[in-house]
Amino acid sequence: MVFSDENRAIFWKVVADHPTIFANKFAVAFDGAHQLYTPYRLEFPEKRNSMRLEADVPLAKDSRERTPCAVSFQCVGPVLIEMRRTRTNNLDERVLTPIQILDIVCRQSLTCPFIDNAANFYSWKSSCYRIPINGALALDLEGGKEMWTGFFSSAHVASGWKPLLNIDVAHTAFYKAKISMVQFMCDVLNERAGAYRNQSSTTRSSYGSTTQPGRTYGATRGGTASSTGRGGYHTYPPRTTHQTPQRHEDSSGMLSPSTLYKEFSLSNHEMKILAEAVKGIKIRISHRKGAVRVYRVNSLQMPADQLTWVT
């Protein structure tokens, strides 16, 4: 079963745009993939058993302001919610068991966008996580990540055939909400630098530098020896000094977007670290007014003035 934020956005937009079919938009239980349950039979056009409803939905991955979308519905008949049964009385194999249907219904309050509180949570499969916005706290995990708190819920059949809703506290790591690519780069490199700066035992990192017991590093990252990298966590030749009053590091030796200078560039090793961290994540492009697109990062390339093509 594939869960998708786009599936939910398209489905609920269709529900909002067709009030004649969905007379009570709160009496709809959707699992985010392909299961839909209602307490009454939906009135399909011309009393058919299937229908196709269209709606224009703004999707982040599409450059158009609104994308034409459609949802196909097929009625498979009534189901009997009785906990003593391991299956409903419906012969269609796509219909879930009674307790699974109840599980979907119990999660609607945090997945239905028509309920105000749903905007404060992000749903993923059987878990819902509180979005740290409007002053809500989140534990900073460094490297552009933070920990969100939520809960995992699942419905079970208890003794005496009574329905039981099990709820457990859940925590997971998310990338920071609305973080810029520049800030993400700084967080990733600062995290890696701190990991090697704070080592207390003699270890040889994968980057070829050796850390001695009890060795400490100055407030500004980088050393005088060519074998000491920024924060002492890798080895590469010293940078060319730029004649500028600005520095790309703050007083604590950490990268900061506010102090990057125009000629700033990453070393080959820093590019490798950033490439490993950013590969596979989705980036939302919104610098063009009225156009928002989402791309998945495959790799990092050299600056445009250094790229060559074989002709």
Automatic annotation (TrEMBL):
Domain of life: Eukaryota
Argonaute linker domain segment(s): 122-177
SMART domains for this protein: DUF1785 (SM01163)
Bias (Low complexity): 200-228
Region (Disordered): 199-255
Bilayer-crossing regions: none
SUPFAM superfamilies tied to this protein: PAZ domain
Pfam families, per database record: ArgoL1
InterPro entries referenced in this protein's UniProt entry, alphabetically: ArgoL1, PAZ_dom_sf
Full protein name: Argonaute linker 1 domain-containing protein
Source organism: Ancylostoma caninum (Dog hookworm)
